[in-house]
Structure formats: structure tokens, C-alpha cells
Amino acid sequence: MSSTSSSTLRADQIWLDGKMVKWDEGQVHVMTHALHYGLGVFEGIRAYKTHDGRLAVFRLREHIRRLLDSAHIIQLQMPYSEDELVEACLELLRRQKTLFANGAYLRPVAFMGDGAMGLGAVNPTRVSVTAWDWGAYLGDKGLKEGIRAKVSSFTRMHVNVNMVRGKITGQYVNSILAKREVVNAGYDEAILLDISGFVAEASGENIFMVNKKGIIKTPPLSSPILDGITRDTVLQLLRDSGRSVDEVTFTRDALYIGNEIFFTGTAAEITPVREVDNRTVGTGQVGPITRFVQETYFRTVRGQEPRYAEWLTYV
Ligand SMILES: Cc1ncc(COP(=O)(O)O)c(C=O)c1O
């Protein structure tokens, strides 16, 4: 599953430009500048039901800070402070606590609104926060048994084209082209290479691999990749457990002969990859490092790892 549908459990309210409105009132004009040119920034954030039955948002402040950084990068004026946006997310969930007792996906988005048209226009920024119930992004089976990935013919854009420290709406056309290409060919997710041919990331996830010597690798932040909050979480979980991780570039054939591959992302969580370009990864089963990361990640987001308690904001 990779899209919301009308059957998705969703909040009956939306935080829009500082006010709570009914879901159906979350409308914008067709002359919205961002709709034409893609000048917007967004976040994907998850709230989980914790082991004691409460609801907690995972690394909320880090996500809101990245949203503000993304806006700063594209010079999108942001009318709300970090605290106000954090509060908007929490207030939306507080109002829907029963509906989202089992967790929720939060989607803050800020974009250039309507007014003047043309590339030089500067219109007021519109901001909304929406919430819905989003299950396993790459499917429950994928989360459990691993997915089939394919290297896309579309390249992750050069760092002077894609502002890689930003989560910018218009940039996602590149991801969508890659995703559609491989889904149409019968695969679950696309891996994009950088312009030199090194592995960058998946269409909406960062990538980790474990080679035959047991060395764990992930592309460095100097690659054209998003500085994923789940990537950062996984780096900390692995390093705190005494394992080292190399942030280095590697080639697609390194993936082919690796023992384990997994994707990390707020939506996809920790998704094992069992096949790349029709080559079985390792034994084709979820490997021990992937299993460790997945289990520790889910324990962390559910409040069962006291050392990471500060990553949780209870609603
Ligand atoms: C292109 C891309 N890479 C990586 C990620 C993973 O980032 P995060 O772990 O912060 O969700 C995402 C999702 O936001 C993404 O869209």
C-alpha cells in the first residue's frame, strides 16, 4: 500500500493556517502558486501507540526543524514558529485521540499560496497539518518478509539541482517517476543512483546494506539523499549496540552480492529488501542485522527502550 484512499481512517479536522477546520474545508484555490511550480515543503511524521497504551509522536521536533530548514532553503517565508507547529501537530492528535488510538501519520505541508502567478511571485505561505492512519507503507508482507526492489533508470538529481537537505514538494516528481517505472515493471520500490552511478536512496527511503564481511554501510550525507530521521535513528541504534556503520558510497553490484539490505523511512519504517534487480539478497530471508534494527526500532517508537525516551512526545 502506498497511497491513502477514501477508506483510510482520517482525522475529521485539519489544522489550516492556524485554525482547526473540518476535513472537507481543507481546500485551496486552483491558482495556488505551489500547485503550478512545486514551491512547498513537507514532512511525514508518525505517532505510535506505546506499550502502556498512550500515543506518542516519534522525533516530532526533529521533523518540524527539518520542515523549517526546508522552507529556509527555498526561501519560503514561514509564518509559524517551531513551537507553534509542534503544538499544531499535538493539538490535532489530541482532538482525535480515540480515532488514532493505534497510531497516526501526520503530514505538515507549507506552500506558496495564491495571489500573483509567475516564477518571480512571492505570495503568502499557507500551512496545514493533516493526520490519517497509514499502515505499513510497503505493505505488511513487505515489512515482514522483505520487498522486491529495482534500480530505476531515473537518476537522483545532482546536489545543485535537488536541494538534498530539504524535503521539497516539487522535487518528488523525480521519486514518482522512479517509483512508477518500477511498479509498472512489477517491483515494489525503486532505488535511485546518483549521477556518478553510486547508490543514493530509494524513492522515499534511505538505504542500508550489510556486506559478506558483516560491514554495515549507508551512503553518506554528501550523496544526493535526504538526511532521513529514521536513518539517523538507525545509525544511533546500531552504534549504541556496539556495531559500526560506514557512511560510504557503494555501487549497485555491491547490493547484488550483499548479505542484507533494508530501507529506512518514517512511512516505510524498517523494510527489508529481499531482491534487487532479480538477484536474491543473501538467503532471501530477513537477515540478523535487519531483524535487530527492525525489532529495536519498533521497541523504541513504542516506548520500550528507556534510553531513547526523549525521542517520544506524548500526546
Ligand atoms: C527521498 C526520501 N529519502 C528518505 C526518506 C526518509 O526520511 P525520514 O526517515 O526522515 O522519514 C524520505 C521520507 O521522508 C524520503 O522522501
Describe the structure.
The chain is α+β, with helices and mostly antiparallel strands. The protein folds into two domains: 13-132, Aminotransferase class 4, branched-chain amino acid transferase, N-terminal domain (D-amino Acid Aminotransferase, Chain A, domain 1, 2-Layer Sandwich); 140-301, D-amino Acid Aminotransferase, Chain A, domain 2 (Alpha-Beta Barrel). The protein is 26% helix and 26% strand. The chain is built from eight helices and 17 strands. It has helices at residues 33-37, 60-73, 82-94, 140-145, 172-184, 229-240, 252-256, 288-301, and strands spanning 13-16, 19-22, 40-42, 45-49, 55-58, 103-112, 125-132, 147-151, 189-193, 199-202, 206-210, 216-218, 245-247, 260-265, 269-276, 279-280, 312-314. The strands form two sheets. Strands 8, 9, 10, 11, 12, 13, 14, 15 and 16 form a nine-stranded mixed β-sheet that branches. Helix 6 (229-240) links the parallel strand 12 (216-218) and strand 13 (245-247). Pyridoxal-5'-phosphate (PLP) is lined by residues 44, 175, 201, 204-206, 226, 228-231, 264-266.
At the fourth level of CATH, the homologous superfamily of the largest domain is D-amino Acid Aminotransferase, subunit A, domain 2
Separation, N- and C-terminal Cα atoms: 27 Å
CATH topology grouping of the largest domain: D-amino Acid Aminotransferase, Chain A, domain 2
Radius of gyration: 19 Å
Order of helices and strands: EEHEEEHHEEHEHEEEEHEHEEEHE
Q: Which CATH class of the largest domain is shown?
A: Alpha Beta
What form results from the Cα inertia axes?
Answer: globular
Q: Count structural domains.
A: 2
Helicity level, as a percent range? Answer: 25-40%
Strand content: 25-35%
**DSSP strand count:** 17
Which CATH architecture of the largest domain? Alpha-Beta Barrel
User: Tell me about the biggest sheet?
Assistant: 9 strands, mixed
Stretches with pLDDT under 50, minimum 5 residues: none
Q: Which ligands, by name, code or SMILES, are bound?
A: pyridoxal-5'-phosphate
- What structural class results from the helix and strand content? alpha+beta
